[in-house]
């Protein structure tokens, strides 16, 4: 008949029609094949284990958490070393949800300063300080060494090319699905002096 029932546990039963499967909340493509699920899990494991190693090395050798390195690097690559908080939130890869608190701690450490946006009283810039630039300069060799040691040296050139092509396609599709970023400042202080200044 073309219908297959699959028992997936005590709570949910799936019904497959062609290549689509119904669940309690609607239709979805049939479960990915085991090889695809294995690749997904390995991607998550690689990310978790490598970033943990990079974090450990940066903290041990430079006293700089990876989340701070991420902020410093994005600011260093921005024009004039400054980004609106919303732009910074869109560009960092770590600690998006606690970005405002992270920047506050970096302000206290002298790595970053906040500046009010002149054309928007509620907007703020995060600005890289000389101390922050120096910290990034000292940490970069440790970080790049770690990327080589824990990631790139394990890949052949053709694997790097294939991985880059595949992951670029996944990232582009995910960004297209997510749609435009809302035009609100990310986790910014209200229209008052920010704590820790």
What features would you describe in this structure?
The protein is globular. Helices cover about 50% and strands about 15% of the residues. It has helices at about 35-60, 65-75, 85-90, 100-110, 130-150, 155-180; strands at about 5, 15, 20-25, 25-30, 80-85, 110-115, 125-130. α1 crosses α5 and α2 (about 65-75) packs across α5 (about 130-150). With about 200 residues, the protein is α+β, with helices and mostly antiparallel strands. It is built from six helices and seven strands.
Q: What percent of residues adopt helix (DSSP H or I)?
A: 40-55%
Nearest-integer average pLDDT: 83
Pattern of helices and strands = EEEEHHEHHEEHH
What are the segments in which pLDDT stays under 50 over at least 5 consecutive residues? Answer: 1-13, 183-197
How does the helix and strand content classify structurally? alpha+beta
Strand order, largest beta sheet: 1-2-3-4
Radius of gyration: 22 Å
Number of discrete helical segments: 6
Shape designation: globular
Strand content: 15-25%
Give the number of DSSP strands: 7
Main sheet summary: 4 strands, antiparallel
C-alpha termini separation: 69 Å
Would you kindly provide a brief summary of this structure?
It contains six helices and seven strands.
């Amino acid at each position: 008949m073309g219908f297959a029932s699959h028992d997936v546990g005590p709570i949910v039963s799936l019904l497959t029609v062609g290549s689509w499967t119904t669940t309690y909340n609607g239709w979805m493509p049939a479960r990915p094949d085991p090889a695809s699920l294995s690749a997904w899990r390995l991607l998550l494991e690689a990310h978790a284990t490598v970033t943990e190693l990079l974090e450990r090395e940066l903290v041990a050798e430079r006293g700089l958490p990876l989340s701070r390195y991420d902020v410093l690097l994005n600011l260093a690559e921005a024009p004039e070393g400054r980004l609106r908080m919303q732009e910074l939130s869109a560009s960092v890869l770590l600690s998006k949800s606690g970005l405002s608190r992270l920047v506050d701690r970096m302000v206290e450490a002298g790595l970053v300063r906040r500046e009010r946006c002149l054309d928007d009283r509620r907007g703020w810039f995060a600005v890289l300080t000389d101390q922050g630039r120096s910290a990034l300069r000292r940490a970069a060799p440790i970080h790049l060494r770690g990327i080589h040691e824990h990631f790139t040296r394990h890949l052949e050139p053709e694997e790097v090319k294939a991985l880059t092509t595949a992951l670029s396609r996944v990232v582009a599709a995910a960004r297209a699905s997510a749609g435009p970023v809302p035009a609100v400042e990310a986790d910014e202080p209200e229209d008052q002096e920010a704590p820790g200044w």
